[in-house]
Amino acid sequence: MGGEMMSTRPKFMFDKFSIDEWQDYFGRMYGHRNRIATPTEVWSRMLEEIGELVQVARPPDLGGIQKALPDVFAWLLAFCDIRGISLKDAVGDRFARGCPYCGVSKNCSCIYFPDKALVQRRPEEFEGPLFETLRERPLGDWIEALDELYGVTNRSHPLVDIVSHLVESAGAVAKALRAKMPQEELEIRIANLFAWTVGVYTKYKSIGESHKPFVQLVLEKYTHCPKCRNSVCQCKPSVGTVFIGLVGEDMFDEKRGIAGAIQREGVYPEYANTISEDPSENYHVTILRHARDNDATVLILNHTVTPYLISLFYQSLLRGQPVRIFARTPCDRDPMLSSFLEEVSNADMLTEFRDNADLTRQLRRWLGAFPRLRA
Question: Is there a single domain that holds both residue 148 and residue 262?
């Protein structure tokens, strides 16, 4: 996919974006990368961003919050996108007629103790509508509506209390994923998390740290991808672990060549031939599952190749995972390997090496092109 440079859309147009339009916007920017991950993997990244928000929400310096909140919002939309959730509908349904616990449409005071809500009205008796009228309205209107509903209470509580409820909501989503709860339950928890995200912003703004609208905070960071500066992200994926499949008579020697590259590049390897069989599933499935759990796949070949390694290569390719074939030359190759390497070479995914020292150099060069995750 060709790179598209930073957006030339006038900034005032972003102010008019509905939640659906923001979800589409981030989908265009990062969707091609997010869709190769599982919902659980994306939510793990969401938890990372919430963890970073917790770190910067400690006094005395709270300036990092205005950089962390847009990341939380972006990954929330990414999760909704791959799970087929409309954040607009999830939040709109949850708060359609006010607080889902007590039923008031403004100045709710029950959210910190919803099980002790003094008013437990039936849905038809709610005061609304509140969000029902905002479905296609700009994001800023949703922020204002949640501020009207919960802002007074949030401003009266310490920032750490609001952040802790945000973390609790994120854990509730993770639990719903693990327990494979119905989509409707997941959407309720997503809506709660969005409300607590807005709560953090409301409190942050009230203590005088920033007077910028929420949309402006998002736009300042995400007019384009902040790393590659393209409106459709072209960043290379981070590689911290690599799955290695190899077949050959001098396998041990090639492992030495691999180790030289792995150690210097600081990448953790997992070798296919060291994986134990799982009695509950086909061994081929076990191999593919382990490969998926790594960031990249490498095949080191010399005389021959097995059908399951060929399948592993194409499965990694379909997932969008970085994958590369390294083949020893000169070498007496069997027909299956020769045919496979011809296909791989035509796709420009083949690197040939002469000996183990050359393998170390070539593998280091390939791994070195990918960024590492920073602690």
Answer: no
